[in-house]
Amino acid sequence: xxxMKEKYQKNMxxxxxxxxxxKQLYTSSIHCFYYAVLQCMKYRxxxxxxxxxxxxxxxxxxxRGNGSHEFVINEIANRMNAKPTEVRGFKExxxxxxxxxxxxxxxERMFTQExxxxxxxxxxxxITNINRFTKVAV
Amino acid sequence: xxxxxEFILVRWCKEMVNKYNWLTIKYEFSSSxxxxxxxxxxxxxITESEEFNVEVMRFEDEMNAQYGNNAPLFCDEERxxxxxxxxxxxxxxxxxYVTVRLHAVQMTCTQTETKESFSxxxxxxxxxxxxxxxxxx
Lengths: 138, 137
Known about the structure:
Chain A is mostly helical and 138 residues long.
């Protein structure tokens, strides 16, 4: 299995464990959910049937632009076979999850279990849409 | 930076509600997210307009490129976040919307004045507070 694919699946699993833990690890789960989606996007970009971008190229091009995360978001969105309203919704959703990740990692804010589960559901929706709107080479 | 973002955001919102007469935009600064939250409606019109979606996406991308983690967050009909009653409303809903906000009215005039002008005019839209039309009833 591609390492990036394994990473995103394991990050989702780790996030699920943290969000359902009775040790109140809800804030820590947000990081896992966001990075699961980011890694899923990187994996799909590297394996697209058309106009793929290798992992090395992703890193090189991201360094020249406005940050690696926005680069990956924009490039995967540009390659989605979806209506503009669906692409826009996708970008809005990932940016909200991204903001929650920033708050979870760098701010004083603590997340509740409800908020953690919302982020989990959002990550699951995002991954479903990435897989739905992009086609990878078999 | 937030003042600058709000200025750009409001200017763009005005252009958009002038261009799309069905559009309502609500926004407010969220201390919880640390950024402006912006909501578009109604979804029935939004899904029909490819031009609108492309235009909104372009603006969102520009704001993200310019302001990074300080850029506003957007969504349709508060799908991803809830706005408070203090949110600024622009466009179709603001033009037709009737809200009763006596607490706001009381900040600018007395209860008696409000009632008098209400009975004289049949309706009162004499004050604005927080960019929201205030109607006394």
